[in-house]
Amino acid sequence: MGFNCGIVGLPNVGKSTLFNALTQTIAAQAANFPFCTIEPNTGRVAIPDERLQKLAAIVNPKNIVPTQLEFVDIAGLVKGASRGEGLGNQFLANIREVDAIIHVLRCFEDDNITHVEGSVDPIRDAEIVETELMIADLESLEKRLDQTVKKARGGEKEAKTRLAVMEPIIEALKAGKPARHAAPNENDKDAQKEYKMLQLLTSKPVLYVCNVDEGSAAEGNKFSQAVFAKAAKENAQAVVISAEIESEVAQLESEAEQKEFLESLGLKETGLAKIIRAGYKLLGLETYFTAGPKEVRAWTFIKGSKAPQCAGIIHSDFERGFIRAETIAYDDFIKYGGEQGCKEAGKMRSEGKDYVVQDGDLLNFLFNV
What we know:
By secondary structure, the protein is α/β, with parallel strands linked by helices. It has helices spanning 15-23, 50-59, 88-95, 122-153, 157-174, 189-197, 222-234, 243-251, 255-264, 271-283, 307-314, 316-320, 330-335, 339-344; strands at residues 4-8, 41-46, 63-65, 68-73, 100-106, 206-211, 237-241, 285-291, 295-302, 322-328, 349-351, 362-367. Strand 8 (285-291) and strand 9 form a beta hairpin. Helix 1 (15-23) runs parallel beside helix 8 (243-251), helix 4 packs antiparallel against helix 5 and helix 5 packs across helix 6. The two termini are 21 Å apart.
């Protein structure tokens, strides 16, 4: 099961520098001119999770396999993208494919790096991107509206549901609000299905990333404060990072060197850790573990998933032939020194198909195909 986040923003805000740092590659050419990223670059990063090391210390496996998150560096957007300006059509097509949007905003001043709009104003920049996405969504819905209305009047059940989903979203977009502000109730499965099938750009969750100068990385600045205020109003999330610092950290070979460098700047963790934690929360993701002599491995699942669904992440046969899941809570596994200790303490449970998997669970699936 893969989850990906598209890194978007205006040209020259630090998207590609951030992408390079996150993936520790030079796949995206960082340069001081618009549209330096022509094709979306994709990179996978291991998700830092100290629980893996603690599990490995008990199990002593041959391999440790972290879970991963995928980042996609998407070409910079400018005003008029919804009408095909710049690389607009390509930008919009690429963003439809991602699960969440990481919106990088320039929150630093530097006369040596041109700003496509001529000045530094992250709120204005955010609104430019949001407006283009909303215009594209509105046009997409209006093109489908007449046909949907005809089918709904003709009695087609799916069309009636689709129309009930589309109408409030169209009103929201016209009022300058993204589609996610008019999303159907999560408990209405039919409406949720139609909502997802619309593939709206502004239905995707957004994380604002404030790219600040090195001196503002620990506390932020007036620009990032404005972004955090915007995020709070939208019930969205925001983090402060310095893409330049991330770039320097990525070049250091050992964790000790990275830690020493960060501490010298008054930082406790990398921007990568902040973004991943926020990205996980944004996508509603959690982690379960499998542990044995061959490997200790982390697996990503959607919060609220039941045991058979989580089994299917490993292999479809596990879900199809699911019998039960031998389950140990992470804290118990650590406290009692592993599986045997948990068995003796009565902390291993046998859970059936209705069990909702919890973050940190250690699972062993029994199945029959």
